[in-house]
Amino acid sequence: DAKTTQPNSMESNEEEPVHLPCNHSTISGTDYIHWYRQLPSQGPEYVIHGLTSNVNNRMASLAIAEDRKSSTLILHRATLRDAAVYYCILIIQGAQKLVFGQGTRLTINP
Amino acid sequence: DAGVTQSPTHLIKTRGQQVTLRCSPKSGHDTVSWYQQALGQGPQFIFQYYEEEERQRGNFPDRFSGHQFPNYSSELNVNALLLGDSALYLCASSAQYGEWLRPGANVLTFGAGSRLTVL
């Protein structure tokens, strides 16, 4: 399984944008980039995914580098409820399992 | 939509005992996966069930076994419990196996987990 590298922790302020980086230099052409987050005392929650183009949904935006070796999850206006561990995961199309790394623990200050 | 439901939410066992955890998938999902999450770590894949068969397995010993029922619900069984089995056990469901071939279809819905403590 291709691996991802994320900072262990990040901190931001409420109502400010947050950019969570992820490096995946060994990504292959068939790997999708998925982001999940895990709030305290809950299971992981799907956030967003993409292949080559930038993606937007109601939760976040995903910016993918042109060479696909890195990506950034963007929370446009962080709230206290966005405090969680964020996981960047590569999934081969048709794959059946997620390989989680350590993720980034995001702290939001009021 | 009830999402993925797991039971029990918490349980305490002693070494050597056996435990059974249960999972009901999200409505419309028929594939169930199980993950183990030790404290402070990311979840680790145990195995996946589809059409009542184990389809993939992670690096876990045979003490870990599972079952999927015709209604798509699933059980995780762990025999001869060890202290190191203490963890949060997560169940995740997804769309039918064939759906994974559709670009971007492979999204999992997780339950809140069952917290197992082995003393």
Describe the structure.
The complex is a heterodimer of chains A (110) and B (119). With 110 residues, chain A is an all-beta fold. Chain A is globular and about 40 Å long. The mean pLDDT of chain A is 92. In chain B, a hairpin with a 6-residue loop joins β4 and β5. Chain B is globular and about 40 Å long. Classes of the chains: A mainly beta (110), B mainly beta (119). Chains A and B meet through β3, β4 and β8 of A and β4, β5 and β10 of B.
Outline of this structure?
Chain A is built from no helices and 9 strands.
Largest sheet of chain B: 7 strands, mixed
Average pLDDT figure of chain B: 91
Strand proportion of chain B, as a percent range, falls in over 45%
> How many strands appear in the DSSP assignment of chain A?
9
List segments of chain A where confidence is low: pLDDT < 50 over at least 5 consecutive residues.
Answer: none
Apparent shape of chain A = globular
By secondary-structure content and strand pairing, the structural class of chain B works out as: mainly beta
Q: State the end-to-end CA separation of chain B.
A: 36 Å
Using only C-alpha atoms, the radius of gyration of chain A works out to 13 Å
Contiguous runs where pLDDT drops below 50 for at least 5 residues of chain B:
none
